[in-house]
């Protein structure tokens, strides 16, 4: 079998705080093979963000890797030099954030940003511009040539997220990290964006790490899923298996909580208490 | 659990911050030495002793003497009085005025904002020294004139910052929440906006205190501030500059307290800002 | 308003917590050279919320739902009519508006951002008393009472907003909205930014409070499914207009408009995947 695009093995990360050490990640194992879409599901504080920052090696100053490692295309991430790291970010790994408004420079036109991002390519500016226009058309932005002169804030939320995906794909990454890319979007748009993402992924053949708290979105897009709770992966596997036959009580509770799944009007919505696992274990 | 008063909690937090504590100690020492200056100073600062002129540090004259044989250490101690008398009240007044006008401009209706901004810009467009000269012409040279100049030139600076910060906060959701509950403008400004902008301005103001002391020195030099032979740090620097080939001690006696004051008020100001912001408070 | 409608509103004024009639909100689009027509955010929307009823307005971004809520709370200039507890909001003087604002509570989208950052939870939730000059002998006791109402521990009174989780901050917002014992709560995206598990808790809380206190609640949200179990009636807004209104079961069971059907179909859920596979 070929080298996995992303291999997180036994990764543990602590945050040093005034109150002592905070265990953000505990023995995380996660593998994404070539062309796979893997979802990471969890609620706030489960360690999703720490995991992403570790994969990009953009960890907070007080974060400390206490064990394990990350390999991208077989190379140990923690052994890369600063230069190799820069080459890797953007060229091998791209990211789409939750809020595209904040991840684009507001005072530079879309065209220039999309040309600039191809700085590694050895082609003329004209070609870069054409590639950018073609990419905007790919992600379903109408009148792509006109959009080149516009600024990100002139686009609607859904269009901005398409733009973010287009920019991420321009570098033809091996791994696309999508950090809650549809959370800020309306439900009808969310479906469109997810379907677009899936379509593009199949055509470009990249792997996707899709991080979300929304089970339904993960189910729509992903092949495999890892459920995170309090810094641990509590359950992982093939998506149909995990969601149709969840083994871990937290996974089961999470599925029950999704209001989209309610068939009938119920008097009380199911919830997950804060000390849920402790209660479930005892 | 017993509820501690906010003030006591703040005091404790300042004491826990080493730099804040250092700032507090320096400021207390400055204020204390200014208040008790007459009893702390070993000599009469204006007593002339021509036999002992331009001496270096000796057992009796700790920082030497100037060209008239006056004791430099005593002049330094007494100079602190003038400095703080001018700096503290004028900066406090400028800060208060700037905050009030700036917050009203930032929060109130557009026409009021325009009017206040016009006032600020007009005042700022005068060069400080020109303004000082015209004040002297109108009311005569005195400490009061220096203070007036400081207030008129500093208040617009604080006001502008207060206005910008107020405008940023005005559109935030917690201010809209207050408006939606029916809160009136004074309440919104004093309880909800002021605590959020005070920290930055207090730090700025404490860093301005030494600048005011320098301004006082400059104006004294022009004969528009403190009249000789009253000692001030500015006049010490001025004399020291003229006598730099004979003795370095006058410059040291003028500069050291200004540097200490800058550091003291800056450290204290930063500690105060951290204490005022619950987000920056260190929890045990 | 025609005569029949006017009579109707008079007859039912006593049972209504909120009546919005022909509400219109428009923003002028000022350009240096362009002289375009004003942008109409809310276009003649009418609805009424009975006492003790939970009414949900569903709309996606740009539908005008937030403008509708803000105009209803008197935070935006509007035309038409908004009557809260029988009092007119549109065109009310500052003094009248202050009096009306004591009679409804407002919940904001950003759970933490809508709480004054330098105040303790106790000060925040007792703020309405001070604003409206309601003298309370013991503010601490009032704070404890309100915290209990929203099921938060008493010792939260001393905390600051940044020390709260999203769900806790949202509860504090509910407590504040309830301080003056209003008959109506206006809630802007009450579940925005909350985890799925906490979403349920909050909606359950609102349902409990509605039953216990006889509250009328107007909920604005983009997510149709979160109001499935809580709303009595639902209105769908699209491009500033109310395109469909009905009781909960009829909206979910037999939607009339294509847009409503699309909203219902945009239900990303596990079972949809399993069914597709």
UniProtKB/TrEMBL annotation, chain A:
Signal peptide limits: none
Domain (ABC transporter) ranges: 6-255
Xref: Pfam families: ABC_tran, oligo_HPY
Keywords: ATP-binding, Cell inner membrane, Cell membrane, Membrane, Nucleotide-binding, Translocase, Transport
GO CC terms: plasma membrane
Subcellular location, record wording: Cell inner membrane
Superkingdom field: Bacteria
PROSITE patterns per UniProt: ABC_TRANSPORTER_1, ABC_TRANSPORTER_2
Cited InterPro entries: AAA+_ATPase, ABC_Ni/Peptide_Import, ABC_transporter-like_ATP-bd, ABC_transporter-like_CS, Oligopep_ABC_C, P-loop_NTPase
Entry keyword annotation includes Translocase: yes
Principal location listed in the UniProt entry: membrane
Membrane-related topology note: Peripheral membrane protein
GO terms for MF: ATP binding; ATP hydrolysis activity
SUPFAM superfamilies referenced in this protein's UniProt entry, alphabetically: P-loop containing nucleoside triphosphate hydrolases
Keyword Translocase: yes
Gene3D superfamilies, per the entry: P-loop containing nucleotide triphosphate hydrolases (3.40.50.300)
GO-annotated biological processes: peptide transport; transmembrane transport
PANTHER family: ATPASE AAA-TYPE CORE DOMAIN-CONTAINING PROTEIN, OLIGOPEPTIDE TRANSPORT ATP-BINDING PROTEIN APPD
Family from the record: Belongs to the ABC transporter superfamily.
UniProt protein name: Peptide ABC transporter ATP-binding protein
From TrEMBL, chain B:
Gene Ontology CC terms, in alphabetical order: plasma membrane
Annotated ABC transmembrane type-1 domain residues: 80-269
Keyword list, A-Z: Cell membrane, Membrane, Transmembrane, Transmembrane helix, Transport
Cited SUPFAM superfamilies: MetI-like
Protein name as it appears in the record: Peptide ABC transporter permease
Organism: Pseudaminobacter soli (ex Li et al. 2025)
Subcellular location: Cell membrane
Location (main, coarse): membrane
From TrEMBL, chain C:
ABC transporter domain ranges (all copies): 18-264
PROSITE patterns: ABC_TRANSPORTER_1, ABC_TRANSPORTER_2
InterPro entries membership: AAA+_ATPase, ABC_transp_ATP-bind, ABC_transporter-like_ATP-bd, ABC_transporter-like_CS, P-loop_NTPase
Pfam families: ABC_tran
Superkingdom in the source lineage: Bacteria
Cross-referenced SUPFAM superfamilies: P-loop containing nucleoside triphosphate hydrolases (SSF52540)
Recorded GO MF terms: ATP binding; ATP hydrolysis activity
GO biological process, one term: transmembrane transport
Keywords: ATP-binding, Nucleotide-binding, Transport
CDD domains: ABC_NikE_OppD_transporters
Family indicated by similarity: Belongs to the ABC transporter superfamily.
Protein name per its UniProtKB record: Peptide ABC transporter ATP-binding protein
Biological source species: Pseudaminobacter soli
């Amino acid at each position: 079998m070929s080298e996995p695009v992303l291999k997180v093995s036994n990764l543990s990360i602590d945050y040093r705080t005034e109150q002592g050490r905070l265990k953000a990640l505990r023995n995380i194992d996660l593998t994404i093979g070539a062309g796979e879409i893997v979802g990471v599901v969890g609620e706030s504080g489960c360690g999703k963000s720490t995991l992403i920052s570790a994969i990009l090696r953009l960890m907070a100053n007080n974060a400390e890797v206490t064990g394990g490692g990350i390999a991208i295309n077989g190379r140990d991430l923690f052994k890369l030099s600063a230069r190799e790291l820069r080459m890797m970010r953007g060229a091998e790994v791209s990211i789409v954030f939750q809020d595209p408004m904040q991840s684009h420079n507001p005072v530079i036109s879309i065209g220039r940003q999309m040309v600039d991002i191809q700085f590694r390519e050895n082609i003329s500016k004209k070609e870069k511009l054409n590639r950018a226009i073609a990419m905007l058309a790919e992600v379903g932005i109408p009148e792509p040539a006109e959009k080149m002169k516009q600024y990100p804030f002139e686009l609607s939320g859904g269009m901005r997220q398409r733009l973010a995906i287009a920019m991420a794909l321009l570098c033809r990454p091996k791994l696309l990290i999508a950090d809650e890319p549809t959370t800020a979007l309306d439900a009808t748009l969310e479906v469109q964006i997810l379907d677009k993402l899936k379509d593009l992924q199949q055509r470009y053949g990249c792997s996707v790490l899709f991080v979300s708290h929304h089970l339904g979105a993960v189910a729509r897009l992903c092949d495999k899923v890892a459920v995170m709770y309090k810094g641990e992966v509590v359950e992982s596997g093939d998506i149909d298996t995990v969601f149709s036959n969840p083994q871990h009580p937290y996974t089961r509770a999470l599925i029950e909580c999704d209001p989209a799944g309610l068939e009938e009007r119920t008097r009380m919505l199911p919830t997950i208490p804060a000390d849920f696992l402790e209660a479930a274990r005892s | 659990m017993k509820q501690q008063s906010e003030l006591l909690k703040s005091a404790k937090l300042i004491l826990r911050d080493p730099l804040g504590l250092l700032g507090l100690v320096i400021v207390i020492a400055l204020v204390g030495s200014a208040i008790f200056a007459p009893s702390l100073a070993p000599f009469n600062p204006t007593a002339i002793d021509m036999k002992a002129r331009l001496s270096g540090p000796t057992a009796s004259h700790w920082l030497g003497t100037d060209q008239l044989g006056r004791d430099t250490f005593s002049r330094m101690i007494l100079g602190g009085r003038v400095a703080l008398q001018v700096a503290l009240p004028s900066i406090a007044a400028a800060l208060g005025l700037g905050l009030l006008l700036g917050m009203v401009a930032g929060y109130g209706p557009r026409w009021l904002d325009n009017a206040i901004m016009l006032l600020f810009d007009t005042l700022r467009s005068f060069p400080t020294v020109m303004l000082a000269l015209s004040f002297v012409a109108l009311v005569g040279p005195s400490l009061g004139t220096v203070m007036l100049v400081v207030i008129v030139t500093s208040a617009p600076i604080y006001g502008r910052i207060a206005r910008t910060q107020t405008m940023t906060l005005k559109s935030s959701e917690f201010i809209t929440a207050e408006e939606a509950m029916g809160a009136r403008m004074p309440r919104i400004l004093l309880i909800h906006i002021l605590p959020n902008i005070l920290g930055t301005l207090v730090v700025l103001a404490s860093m301005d205190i030494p600048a005011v002391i320098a301004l006082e020195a400059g104006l004294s030099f022009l004969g528009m501030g403190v009249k000789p032979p009253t000692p001030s740090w500015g006049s010490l620097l001025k004399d020291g500059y003229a006598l730099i080939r004979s003795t370095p001690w006058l410059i040291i006696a003028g500069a050291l307290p200004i540097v200490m004051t800058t550091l003291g008020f800056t450290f204290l100001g930063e500690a105060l800002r951290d204490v005022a912001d619950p987000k920056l408070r260190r929890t045990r | 308003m025609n005569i029949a409608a006017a009579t109707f509103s008079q007859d039912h004024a006593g049972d209504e917590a909120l009546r919005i009639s022909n509400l219109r909100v428009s923003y002028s689009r000022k350009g240096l050279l362009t002289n375009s027509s004003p942008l109409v955010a809310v276009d003649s929307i009418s609805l009424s919320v009975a006492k003790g009823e939970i009414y949900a307005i569903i709309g996606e971004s740009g539908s005008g739902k937030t403008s509708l809520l803000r105009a209803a709370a008197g935070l935006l200039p509007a035309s038409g009519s908004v009557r809260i507890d029988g009092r007119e909001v549109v065109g009310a003087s500052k003094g009248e508006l202050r009096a009306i604002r004591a009679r409804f509570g407002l919940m904001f989208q950003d759970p933490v951002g809508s709480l004054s950052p330098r105040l303790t939870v106790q000060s925040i939730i007792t703020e309405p008393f001070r604003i409206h000059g309601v003298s309370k002998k013991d503010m601490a006791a009032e704070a404890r009472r309100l915290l209990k109402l929203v099921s938060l521990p008493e010792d939260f009174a001393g905390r600051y907003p940044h020390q709260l989780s999203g769900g806790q901050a949202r509860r504090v917002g509910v407590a504040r909205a309830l301080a003056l014992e209003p008959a109506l709560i206006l809630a802007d995206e009450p579940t925005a930014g909350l985890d799925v598990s906490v979403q349920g808790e909050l909606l359950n809380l609102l349902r409990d409070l509605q039953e216990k206190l006889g509250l009328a609640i107007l909920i604005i949200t983009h997510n149709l499914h979160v109001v499935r179990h809580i709303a009595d009636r639902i209105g769908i807004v699209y491009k500033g207009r109310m395109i469909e209104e009905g009781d909960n079961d009829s909206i979910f069971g037999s939607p009339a408009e294509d847009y409503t059907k699309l909203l219902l179909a945009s239900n990303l859920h596990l079972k949809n995947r399993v069914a597709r596979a």
